[in-house]
Design the sequence.
């Protein structure tokens, strides 16, 4: 699970490293435990390979301290999240065959690596690493040697791999092109309008230059780029370049730098009001919600399933918890994507919709679940942030979160935008169901719709207010810095607690557990003493569980940090809490307060990490798009 990047220029003696560095920095969200580049100079038919354990910063330090030739006309680079082989120098990409005949980078999985290794060993190949990619590069070398043709070598290799593939390769014999191959893993080609430069990338995010035309690739395609041209072939060797419609990347990004912020994470947390506002504006206009899903499908739903991983699963839980008020008489269920296969047989097919939530749209567990649903013939809806992702292209219906790129490892703005889209879906379904009931007048249904839309439209402003003053959350973070464990409890806010716990685990290395508050008394109270801090979220007027849970915590000496909406029912909690963070009273839309509570928890995790000296953009052991099962 990694990011790959390639660049080719018509000009010679270009500073290739500076182009690769910029591209790879945008791909570090896919992994950052080792990095490497290969820079080719066609003039002297030479290649310079530099690798480093660690992120692009470590590679840059290596380059600055060494004597490397960074000038040339082609470069390929790689940033890695180790899955099978350790993140040591030998396993870093780019990999190369004997005499550097073939040099390449790879993102994907090779399920049949044992067979490929055995085949190559029988042909007298030997290897310097444990990397599957080294095997693949040598397999290309083997086919090239055998057929004396680069196209055949790449095609035969793609055919030989059982797994997923995003490959970028340069042959020593032709340093005027980068060959590529794609099967499942994401890979994008871009040509500059001036016909002087071309790029290869795991994600459009890394394509920051002006005037680029992007050519989407389909699975099981391969080909090459030169500085001014592109060829795409399918597995039958048919040239399919002509049926590809390029698109321009203009307007698809926000600024990609950190700006005034020390970390992307804080920048992205603070970008949330803008992101949710633009998500609302995309789908709410003319006093209605326009989701592009047929009303006939929504109004007749009997079963609604939500599927996601990590934070996107926590958003799925939010969807499930909307059932009582918004998905009346619909059987709702959220399913962790990696568990989908164990639960799929229970799914009802008729009058059903499966909603897949994902920031990247490339999470393998989620894609496997999508494929299974397609086999079952159940309609699918993707809620996704990346337009070119597989999830976006393969689901029957798509809603795009308008979060724009997230460069920090942990998701923030894509998550809260997912919640907004779930709310809009809930409101729309409720409205259609009201209309379906003959006794409800159109005016009444319209007034309910209008009321909810108004509340949703206020959320960005409320979020701005929370973000404006971070003093108290910073103080609390300083106090919690040394804590090893934290509990988060809530009623309908349980999914937000789960998201907060995930943020504390992944960014701060704190073991945090989320519990439905009523469950506290069934065992976990045993954890409470004067050392234990518990975060409680309460936003509903029906809060008896919250009140008794808070009392159970307090009488055992626990510290209570409360995120409370300003409603009368929370007065008792205000008096028992040690710390209080407020969210406004959203009245009929009280369930829409989750994005606001989430922002407090994101900020808390951010500041704890900073106090602990952790880089919150790159916490240990993690990568953003998990493209392995
Ligand atoms: C948490 C986080 C992960 C992702 C998960 C799914 O901050 O980023 O838990 O939410 O890996 O990724 P997507 O949403 O891209 O499918």
Sequence:
């Amino acid at each position: 699970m990694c990011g790959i990047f390639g660049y080719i220029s018509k000009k010679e003696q270009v500073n290739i490293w500076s182009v690769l560095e910029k591209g790879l920095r945008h791909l570090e969200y896919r992994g950052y435990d080792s990095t490497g580049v290969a820079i080719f100079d066609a003039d002297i038919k030479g290649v310079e390979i530099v690798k480093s354990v660690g992120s692009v910063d470590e590679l840059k330090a290596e380059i600055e301290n060494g004597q490397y030739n960074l000038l040339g006309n082609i470069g390929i680079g790689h940033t890695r999240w180790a899955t099978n082989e350790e993140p040591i120098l030998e396993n870093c990409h780019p990999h190369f065959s004997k005499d550097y005949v073939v040099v390449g980078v790879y993102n994907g999985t090779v399920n049949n690596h044992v067979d490929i290794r055995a085949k190559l060993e029988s042909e007298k190949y030997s290897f310097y690493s444990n990397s599957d990619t080294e095997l693949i590069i040598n397999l290309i070398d083997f086919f090239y040697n055998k057929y004396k043709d680069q196209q055949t070598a790449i095609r035969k290799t793609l055919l030989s791999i059982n797994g997923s593939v995003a490959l970028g390769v340069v042959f020593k014999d032709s340093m005027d092109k980068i060959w590529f191959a794609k099967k499942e893993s994401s890979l994008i080609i871009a040509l500059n309008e001036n016909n002087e430069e071309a790029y290869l990338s795991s994600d459009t995010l890394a394509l920051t230059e002006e005037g680029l035309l992007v050519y989407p690739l389909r699975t099981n395609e391969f080909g090459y780029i030169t500085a001014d041209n592109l060829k795409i072939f399918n597995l039958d060797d048919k040239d399919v370049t002509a049926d590809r419609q390029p698109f321009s990347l203009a307007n698809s990004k926000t600024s990609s730098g950190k700006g005034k912020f020390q970390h992307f994470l804080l920048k992205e947390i603070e970008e949330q009001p803008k992101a949710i506002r633009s998500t609302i504006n995309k789908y709410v206009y003319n006093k209605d919600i326009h989701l592009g899903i047929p009303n006939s499908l929504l109004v007749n739903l009997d079963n609604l399933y939500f599927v996601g991983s990590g934070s996107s699963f926590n958003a799925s839980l939010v969807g499930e918890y909307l059932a009582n008020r918004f998905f009346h008489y619909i059987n709702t269920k959220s399913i962790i994507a990696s568990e989908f296969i164990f639960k799929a047989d229970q799914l009802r097919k008729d009058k059903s919709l499966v909603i897949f939530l994902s920031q990247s749209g490339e999470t393998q567990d989620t894609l496997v679940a999508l494929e299974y649903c397609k086999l079952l013939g159940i309609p699918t809806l993707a809620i996704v942030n990346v337009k070119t992702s597989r999830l976006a292209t393969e689901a029957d219906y798509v809603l795009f979160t308008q979060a724009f790129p997230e460069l920090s490892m942990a998701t923030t703005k894509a998550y809260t935008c997912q919640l907004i889209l779930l709310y809009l879906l809930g409101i729309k379904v409720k409205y259609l169901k009201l209309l379906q009931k003959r006794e409800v007048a159109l005016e009444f249904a319209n007034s309910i719709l209008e009321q909810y839309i108004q509340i949703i439209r206020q959320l960005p402003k409320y979020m701005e207010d929370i973000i404006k003053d971070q003093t108290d959350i910073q103080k609390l973070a300083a106090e919690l810095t040394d804590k090893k464990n934290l509990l988060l409890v809530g009623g309908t806010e349980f999914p937000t607690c789960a998201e907060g716990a995930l943020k504390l685990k992944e960014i701060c290395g704190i073991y945090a557990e989320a519990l439905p508050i009523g469950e506290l008394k069934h065992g976990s109270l045993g954890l409470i003493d004067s050392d234990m801090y518990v975060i409680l979220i309460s936003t509903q007027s029906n809060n008896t569980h919250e009140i008794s849970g808070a009392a159970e915590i307090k009488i055992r000496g626990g510290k209570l940090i409360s995120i409370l909406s300003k409603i009368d029912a929370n007065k008792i909690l205000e008096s028992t809490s040690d710390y209080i963070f407020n969210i406004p009273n959203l009245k009929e839309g009280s369930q829409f307060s989750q994005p606001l509570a989430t922002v407090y928890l994101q900020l808390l995790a951010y500041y704890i990490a900073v106090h602990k000296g952790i880089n919150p953009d790159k916490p240990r052991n993690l990568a953003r798009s998990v493209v392995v099962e």
